[in-house]
Amino acid sequence: MTMRLRQIFYVFLLGMFVGLSLSGLIYWGFTSIWFGNHLTGNLGRTDVASVTPWLAPIVWEGTFDSRVIDSIYKQQNITIATTVFALGKYTRFLKDFLESAEEHYFVGFRVHFYLFTDQPEEVPNVKLGQERYLTVKTLPSMNRWQDISMSRMEILEKLIENELASEADYIFCLDVDTKFYGRWGVESLGRLVGVIHPWFFNVPRFLFTYEHRPKSQAYIPAGKGDFYYTGAAFGGSLKDVHNLTKTCREQMNIDTANSIEALWHEESHLNKYFLYNKPSKLLSPEYLWRDISMSSGSVKIIRFSHVAKNNAEVRPNL
Amino acid sequence: MQSPQGLNGKVIAVTPWLAPIVWEGTFDSFLIDSIYQQQNITIATTVFALGKYTTFLKAFLESAEQNYFVGFRVHYYLFTDHPEQVPAVKLGEGRQLTVLKVASSNRWQEITLRRMEKLEKLIESRLVNEADYVFSLDVDTKFYGRWGAESLGRLIGVIHPGYYQTSRKRFPYERRPESQAYIPAAEGDYYYGGAVIGGFVKDVYKVAKTCREQLDIDAAKSIEAAWQEESHLNKYFLYNKPSKVLSPEYLWQDFKPNTNEVKIIRFSQVIKNYAAVRPNP
Q1: How many Å apart are CA A209 and CA A218, to the nearest integer?
Q2: How many CB atoms lie within 10 A of CB B34?
Q3: Confidence check: pLDDT of A54 > 80
Q4: Which ipTM score applies to this complex?
Q5: Does A46 touch chain B (CB under 8 A)?
Q6: Phi and psi (nearest 5°) for B244?
Q7: At A184, is the secondary structure helix, strand, or coil?
C-alpha cells in the first residue's frame, strides 16, 4: 500500500472508531439517565407495582415527590386523627411510639392522637410538637389479647361517630408495639388506605392467611383476593373508616354468635372488607415492616415497623 | 420532573403526586367495570362541531358507540351552529344525545376559546343535575379502542401525544409573563392535551370557570396564549394537579407512527386538511 493510501486508511479507521464510539455513547445516553434526558430526579419505580389493577396507587419510596405532595396538602388545613391501643403491659411501647412519631409521622401537620388504655397512669409524658395533641381514653381491662385486638373495631366506630366528625379529616389506626424510623407523611392519605402486610407482599395468593372457613363472616374463597393487608395499620376518611370498622364489628359479632373466631381476628375481617371495598390507596410494606433488623430488596426504606417483643411477657394470655 | 416513560420501555404508572397514569396493562377492565357498574353513574360528554367540523361527527359518534364507556349511561352534548348537519347515528341503550345550537364564528381560535365558557354554562344549568362525570372532547377525532371506567376520577388530564417524551423546558407552555397562562421555564409536570378534560362535574366546572376567567383577562389585554385554551389548561393543571392522568393512548394523532410505549391507540385526532375545515388559517 502506498504511504498516501495508508494515511487515508488510518484516517478512515480513526473516523470509524470515533463514529462508533459516538453512536455507542449516544445509545447509552438515551438508555441511561445521563445525556440531558428527561428522566431527572430518578422518580418512578419499575421494579415494583406502583398501581393496583383498579388503579389505586401503591406508595413506595421513589414513586412520589414529598415536596410536591406536602405543598398540596398544606393548602388544605387538615387534621389527622390517630388511634393507638395500649392495654396492660403494652403501655411500655408508648414512649418509643410517640417520640418516634413526633420525629417522622405527618411532621408539620395537625395530628391528634387518641390513646386508649386501661392504665392511664402509665402513659409517658412525651413532649409533642406544635399543633400536635394527645387525648387519653380509659378502657376496662381485658383478659384475652385477641379480644383486645378485636374490640378496637367497635371502639373506633364509636369514636368516629361521637367525637371525630367535626375534628378530623383523616384517621389512621395503628398498632402500638411499633416505632417510626422514616417519613410517614401525606403521601399516605386517601379515602380508604390499606397497608400491605410485610410477610405477604412477595408471596403468591395461595399462601395468604385469609379466613377460609365458609362459616365465618370473614370467609374468602380460594382463588380470590388482591393483597393480604395488615390489621396493624389502616386509615382513610372518617366516613370510609367508619364504614370499615362498623362492618368489621358487625361481622365479628355474627361470628361470635356462631361460636367461631376468624383465624387472624379483626385482620381477617379487614381483609374481607378490603376485597369487596377496594382501598383507594395502598401503602407498601415500608409503612409497616417486620422488624428494623430485617431487610428485603424492594423495601428500600423502613418508615414504621413492629418492634421485637416477647409475646409471653407482654400478652395477658397466650 | 418525571417523564411518564420509564427506562427500558417500562412505563411509569403514577405521577410524583401519586395520581395513577393510565396505560394498557396497568388495570383490569373487568374489575374496574364492575366497581363502577355498581355506582349507577352518568357520564356527560361535550363536543363542539362548528362550521365544517360537523363532518367529523359521524365517525366520532359511531366509533364512540363501539368503544367509549360501553355499557354505561352516556349523554352527549353536541354544540353546533349547524344542527341540521348533525348525522343520525344510532345510539345504544342508556345513551342519548342533545344538540345545542350556538352562534357561528369566523376564527377557529375564537371557537376553541369559547368552549370553556360554554362548558361552564352547561354544567351550571344542566350537568349538576344530570351527570356524575363530564368529559370534554375534541370532535376531529375517532375512537379506535376501549375508553372505559378506568378513565374516571375527580380531575382528569391527558398527556399530549407530541410531548410525552420531551423535557419540560421544551413544553410549549405560554412563556410570556403578560399572559395569565404563563408558566416559568423551570416549572411544569407534563404537557396536557386540551382535546380531553374530564372529572367530576364540580371539578371540571372549576377548570372551565378558571380558564374562562383567565382567557377573558388575556383578551382584555389583547393577548392570546400560544395554544389558546390548552395553554390555560396547562396552567390550571400545574397548580391543581389532576387526580388521574391518561397516557397518550387516550389522545393520539393519526399521523404519528406507533411507538414502543403506546401499545394501543384508543382515541386519536384524525388527519385533516386544515384549509378545508377551518374558517380561517
Answers
A1: 11
A2: 12
A3: yes
A4: 0.84
A5: yes
A6: -155, 140
A7: strand
CA atoms of A304 and A179, how far apart (whole Å) = 6
CA angle, residues B129, B134, B139, in degrees to nearest 5: 130
Helices marked H in A32-120 — which ranges?
Answer: 66-74, 94-104
| Residue A48: all three cell numbers together | 415494583
- DSSP structure class, residue B127: I
Helices (H), chain B: 29-37, 57-67, 108-122, 128-130, 201-220, 229-239, 274-277
Antiparallel, parallel or unpaired: β A178-180 and A110-117: unpaired
> Residue B103's CB: how many other CB atoms inside 10 A?
7
Q: Which residue of A has its CA nearest to B242?
A: A72
Catalytic residues of B: 230
Binding residues of A for UDP-N-acetyl-alpha-D-galactosamine: 90, 175-177
Distance CA A65, CA A162 (A): 36
Task: Assess A282–B contact: CB distance below 8 Å, yes or no.
Answer: no
- The answer to whether A58 and A149 have CB atoms below 8 angstroms apart is no
Cα three-residue angle A115-A117-A121, rounded to 5 degrees: 100
Largest CA distance in chain A: 103
Number of other CB atoms surrounding residue B92 within 10 Å: 12
Please, what sign has the CA dihedral across residues A169, B210, B21, A105? negative
> How do residues A202-235 score in pLDDT, each as one tens digit?
889 999 999 999 999 999 999 999 999 999 999 9
Instruction: Report pTM.
Output: 0.86
| Packing angle, helices A238-257 and A145-162, rounded to 10 | 140
Between CA A117 and CA A139 the distance in angstroms is 6
The residues, any chain, with a CB within 8 Å of residue A224's CB and separated by 6 or more, are: A275
Q: What's the rounded Cα separation, in Å, for the pair B176 and A43?
A: 29
What single letter denotes the amino acid at residue A312? Answer: A
Instruction: Report pLDDT for B94.
Output: 95
How many other C-beta atoms lie within 10 A of the C-beta of residue A311? Answer: 9
Distances from the Cα of A114 to the Cα of A83, A160, A263, B43, B117, angstroms:
5, 11, 28, 41, 48
Nearest in space to B80 (alpha carbons), one of B60, B94, B101: B101
Give the CA angle between residues A36, A42, A48 to the nearest 5°. Answer: 135
Nearest to B249 by CA among B137, B120, B144: B144
Q: Which of B3, B7, B14, B34 to mutate to test the interface with A (most CBs of A within 10 A)?
A: B14
Residue B211 scores a pLDDT above 70: yes
A299 bridge partner residues: A296
Say what the pLDDT of residue B259 is: 82
Label residue A142 by pLDDT band (50, 70, 90).
confident
When the pLDDT of each residue in chain B is averaged and rounded to a whole number, the result is 92
